[in-house]
UniProtKB/TrEMBL annotation:
HAMAP family xrefs: AroQ (MF_00169)
Active site: Y23, H105
Catalytic activity: 3-dehydroquinate = 3-dehydroshikimate + H2O
Superkingdom of source: Bacteria
GO biological processes: amino acid biosynthetic process; aromatic amino acid family biosynthetic process; chorismate biosynthetic process; quinate catabolic process
Function (record text): Catalyzes a trans-dehydration via an enolate intermediate.
MF (Gene Ontology): 3-dehydroquinate dehydratase activity
EC number of this enzyme: 4.2.1.10
Assembly and oligomerization: Homododecamer.
Record's protein name: 3-dehydroquinate dehydratase
Annotated Pfam families: DHquinase_II
Pathway: Metabolic intermediate biosynthesis; chorismate biosynthesis; chorismate from D-erythrose 4-phosphate and phosphoenolpyruvate: step 3/7
Class of this enzyme: lyase
């Protein structure tokens, strides 16, 4: 069984309390449960993680890229949070590892502040999803499963 990696960046540990009018009331534990159910429906194992540290995300992306090369991973669903708009290091990790990545945002970043309109991840992502709220994670799992066939 291949693994779907779901990596969450800075401040996503605050889901449910941080700006609920934008991100909703669901917690990161709710997101993980949703992803676990979606992975089970698509025959995937789940590796779900969150960090507030950019370097840790880089290491995880590299690990997942190696697992994908070995045929053990379907790819990565990456909600990099604010690092989406600032991190050349994440761009380079994705590009260098060859990992299949779906860039995901809970909110529609293009309807928000101008600084959120640019992504360093999009040019190296297989797909980009934004604005579906927390249910977007389940959609991303389904998409990742389909890409891996």
């Amino acid at each position: 069984m291949k693994t779907a990696f779901v990596f969450n960046g800075p401040n996503l540990n605050l889901l449910g309390t941080r700006e609920p009018q934008i991100y909703g009331a669901q917690t990161l534990a709710d997101v993980e449960a949703l992803c676990r159910q979606a992975c089970a429906e698509h025959g995937l194992a789940l590796d779900f993680r969150q960090t507030n540290h950019e370097g840790e995300l880089v290491t995880w992306i590299q690990e997942a890229g190696r697992a994908q090369t070995q045929g053990k991973a379907a790819g990565i669903i990456l909600n990099a949070g604010a690092y989406t708009h600032t991190s050349v290091a994440l761009h380079d990790a994705i590009k260098g590892s060859g990992a299949r990545v779906i860039e995901l945002h809970i909110s529609n970043v293009h309807a928000r502040e101008a600084f959120r309109h640019h992504s360093y991840i999009s040019p190296v992502a297989q797909a980009v999803m934004a604005g579906f709220g927390v249910p977007g994670y389940a959609l991303a799992v389904a998409a990742l499963a389909g890409m891996d066939r």
